[in-house]
Amino acid sequence: MTEQQRADDLRRIDDALIAGGEILSRYTPGEIEALQKSGGDPVTQADLEVDAALKNILPRPDEGWLSEETRDDEARLGCARVWIVDPLDGTREFVLGLPEFCISIALVENGQAVAGGIFNPATGEKVVGSRETGVTLNGEPVEPRTASTLAEATVLASRSEVGRGEWRPFENAYPFAIVPMGSVAYKFGRVAAGLADATWTLVPKHEWDIAAGVALVAAAGGEVRAMPGDDLTLNRRRPKLRGLVALSPGVTGIWGEVEADWTPNPDPRARKSSSA
What we know:
Elements: H1 3-24, E1 34-36, E2 42-44, H2 45-57, E3 64-67, E4 81-89, H3 91-96, E5 102-109, E6 112-120, E7 125-130, E8 134-137, E9 140-141, E10 154-158, H4 159-163, H5 168-173, E11 177-181, H6 184-192, E12 198-200, E13 205-206, H7 207-219, E14 223-226, E15 240-241, E16 244-247, H8 256-259, H9 268-275
């Protein structure tokens, strides 16, 4: 991959984020009619319009496409380069009027997320980057966070997981600040942009939820880890991962204190007492 080729990829990502943001600006969050998809997730006309715009801008004839809002075409499995997108990650928040949603775009090459971008038009945060170029926030290079202890760290948690009580064991066992937030792509983007120290999921996620975040966190010098027994290979036939943790560069060294407890439906207190 030449420098010029990667610059072209990033221009396409930026152009698509801007185009998607312009579409979303025609809608008022909190005043959106939503339909229920077969799995129960909401979808709006905005999701579909952004999806069409991204598909028009991003893939070239030899590149694959995987989107939450497009019928899957397994031809992507034979492509070396695949665009994996969620035109509106955080649709529930968008419908409720919470400023915790974003457009999420990733470029995957030979199974690895190499470039990506997220844009939250409600907050004006646009995070774009690649493994070759690093990460920018609104066009400026990001400053890595430097938490040296868990007590200094800010962890972004799924708003719905917190609502179900699934983060309560972490709240009781560790001193880091937990901030509930919608949109997993947005949370990963904030970690990559140096606005938070870590985030992780306790339930499986589709590739379109996390692909851009995987690329951005890696581009920022951080680390993304999959659940034990899984890996970060993307463009799978069944595009779903068991769970992920994203760490900013400053906290990779202190994550070991928490790592043993990062499992689905964790109970750190019970695990600690049983090992004592």
